Automatic annotation (TrEMBL):
One of its GO terms (molecular function) is acid-amino acid ligase activity. It comes from Aegilops tauschii subsp. strangulata. Pfam families: GH3 (PF03321). GO terms for cellular component: cytoplasm. This is GH3 auxin-responsive promoter. Residues 1-27 are annotated as: Disordered.
Length: 164
């Protein structure tokens, strides 16, 4: 059983929603995602994507800055001494490339019930299990509301281009 001893993830986190499921569970309550997240024309989605990709370098730098600002208090980032810096050069010089096994102890703490900002500054709302195809064993994948929304946007964009 890939779940942590004591059933930490089983009791605290609901399963991650399927990407096409418009209901997102938070705690014991279900809420409907805002309409603008679920109902959007293909052309609007494509236009937004094309607008963002016109200046992809700027969008990427803005995205990195936003991510680092939101997660400055996360233990994983603090250990590398980023100290609140949000520029690409600081990130590149401070944060090493990593693989899942590098962050696995932090994710396991979350799965075991640690509610401190361990891997992200925002609360982890669900844990999903990978299929286990990479190393033969499933891995926990943490989700927060923002990551779920971003994942849904990826699916919407893909759908829009396929159904253009």
């Amino acid at each position: 059983d890939p779940r942590p001893a004591g059933g930490g993830a089983r009791g605290r986190f609901p399963p991650a929603p399927h990407p096409t499921d418009h209901r997102h569970r938070t705690g014991d309550r279900a809420r409907i995602l805002p309409a603008q997240m679920t109902i959007c024309s293909c052309e609007e989605t494509i236009n937004e994507f094309e607008m963002l990709t016109r200046d992809a370098a700027r969008v990427q730098l803005d995205t990195l800055k936003r991510i680092l600002e939101a997660n400055a208090g996360a233990e994983y980032l603090r250990q590398f001494g980023l100290d609140g810096r949000t520029d690409a050069a600081s990130y590149k010089s401070c944060i090493p490339l990593c693989v899942h096994s590098d962050v696995e102890p932090f994710i396991q703490r979350v799965a075991d019930g640690d509610s401190a900002p361990v891997v992200t500054g925002k609360p982890i709302t669900s844990l999903s299990l990978s299929s286990g195809t990479t190393q033969g064993k499933p891995k926990f994948l943490p989700f927060n509301d923002e990551l779920l929304e971003n994942t849904l946007q990826i699916f919407r964009t893909s759908y829009a281009f396929r159904n253009r």
